Amino acid sequence: MRRSRLALVAPSILRDGPRGAGRGSIPHLGLAYVAGNVQRSATDLLAVDCAAERMTEADLLERLRAFRPDVVAFTAYTQSVKMVSRVATRLKADRPEIRVIVGGTHATAVPVETLDAYPSLDAAVVAEGERTFADLLEAYHRGGPDADVTAIPGVCGRREGRVVLAPPRPEIEELDAIGFPAWDLVDLDRYSGVYHVTDRARRAVPLATGRGCAFRCSFCFRGTGTTQRLRSIPNVLEELRHDVNVLGIREFVILNESFLADRNHVLEFCDALLREGLDRRVRWSCQSRVDQVTPEVAVALRRAGCRVVSLGIESGDAGMLDRMHKQTTLEQGIQAVRVAREAGLLTDTNFILGLPGETPESLARTIEHSLKVNADMAGFARLAPFPGTEVLRMARRGLGGLRLLSEDPDDFDKHTGAALELIRVPRAELDRFQRIAYWRFYRRPSRWLSALRMVRPLVLLVTAWQMLLGGLRSMVGAGRLRRGRPVPSRNPEALRPVSMPRAASPGP
Q: Is it the case that residue 339 has pLDDT exceeding 60?
């Protein structure tokens, strides 16, 4: 039996292709996990990261045509699913026998609707991808491109012209049994890390010490499950030893949704890094809820080589926090930054503008609160109604003062998107608040100096440029609405949610 040829692709989420200059931040963890859990002895693999390689759609097509894969697997956010469909259509025009698979958060939230909307896609991997995709690839390997894959748990496929969703695959409880990410397929010199002050190669990779989130924030789709599952520290340490000693990794980013949720797990992890001397050889960052940052944990993080903690504060209005089921307080956000700073950690804070029930007054309070929190960096995203979230369900029903302007996946962007506004805060006004928030936070020289300790000047300039473009787009969109011509919804069915008992995985 001949070897299968598999291409794994992380597309760019920018509709016009990658912009700007410089290296990527970190490679895609989900695709690397999928690659690490297929039968390598029977498979020729190609991994493509379009953003890191500055690839346009034409570049990607050229690369895939040269490789001549039997199967192409894409990971897809909502913003990139249309690009995936376009590339699949052109590949199949050349070679109809190619099978094109899609995974990731969008396909997990709306698998049936994704295949219905995009006929060029043959199957979707729902939730954790490692075992499901290995079974799917084996089915094509044995049965050819016409193999019926609709009975494989965790797969949504096509049978006799119909889209069929198979029963869900149980969550992987024993995470230690999963093979490590296949970073040998990736040119690690293309990456410099999430928080970097130069563009030199830092050979940075993501790391997951666990999966799942038990909290129910209304704006979030819990992409790695609804309960927390943790790897053993010896298993994590084995992966890190290999990454540092064999691959020369100098930075890693912990991608757990809430890394600090299990205090004992965190302290054991930090102790292990100290015992191995890895605290002196590699630096790292993580993200956390604000109610999980304690002095003991913060000191342990810093001693073990952690440099930055990213915190989800979200709003400066207590009512907004309650309505989004955040289960945190304003004071906890202030305290988390203070505790982290006292331990020697840098802090990056995240806020969301345009939450259900938002008013000009609550937006102003969020801006003032960001100044009071006084972190080293702050990001102000606009609410995006992603598939599978409570926010999208509310927007479709007009609840919480939300008005859905578009269901075109291209418009689902957290900084320059055009999908959502509030009745009391039209989109152009929301854009104005976003610009004011960035201006007031970063006009202070102390915050510029803090930010420049964490990211390159080019990153800040590109962000400012994108904000300007977003403002121009919002004015155009507002003008269309005033003339009675709302932003069109070109693919509404692609966002209709399906009821799933669990959430997504990192890949494919």
A: yes
According to DSSP H, which parts of 287-400 are helical?
A: 295-303, 318-323, 330-342, 360-373, 390-397
Residue 224: pLDDT over 90 = no
As a whole number of angstroms, the distance between CA 19 and CA 36 comes to: 30
Please work out, in degrees rounded to the nearest 5, the angle formed at the alpha carbon of residue 480 by the alpha carbons of 479 and 481: 90
- Phi, psi dihedrals of residue 15, rounded to the nearest 5°: -65, -30
Whole-Å CA distances, 283 to 207, 278, 286, 388, 467: 12, 9, 11, 34, 30
Angle at 397 between CA 395 and CA 398, to 5 degrees: 60
Question: Which residue's structure tokens are 């804070």?
Answer: 349
Q: What distance lies between CA 118 and its chain's CA centroid?
A: 22
User: How do residues 96-113 score in pLDDT, each as one tens digit?
Assistant: 999 999 999 999 999 999
For residues 404 and 154, give the distance between their C-alpha atoms in angstroms, rounded to a whole number: 30
Domains defined along the chain, listed by start:
4-165 (3.40.50.280), 188-484 (3.80.30.20)
DSSP character at residue 329: -
Contact residues for 340 (Cβ-Cβ < 8 A; gap 6+): 293, 298, 309, 311, 346, 347
Task: For 171, list phi and psi in degrees, rounded to 5.
Answer: -60, 150
Give the DSSP per-residue string, 22-86.
Answer: S-BSS--HHHHHHHTTS-GGGEEEEEEETTTTT--HHHHHHHHHHH--SEEEEE--GGGHHHHHH
The pLDDT tens digits of the residues spanning 153-172 come to: 999 999 998 999 999 999 99
User: What CA–CA distance (Å, rounded) separates 168 from 156?
Assistant: 10
Is there a contact between 394 and 388 (Cβ–Cβ < 8 Å)?
Answer: no
pTM: 0.87
Q: Please name the amino acid found at residue 436.
A: I
Cis peptide leading into residue 508 (ω within 30°): yes
| Segment 403-424, tens digit of pLDDT | 999 999 988 887 776 899 999 9
C-alpha to C-alpha distance for 214 and 387, rounded to whole angstroms: 19
The whole-number pLDDT of residue 225 equals 74
What does the radius of gyration of the chain's CA atoms come to, in whole angstroms? Answer: 22
Q: What is the DSSP letter of 191?
A: B
Closest Cα partner for 379 from 485, 454, 304? 454
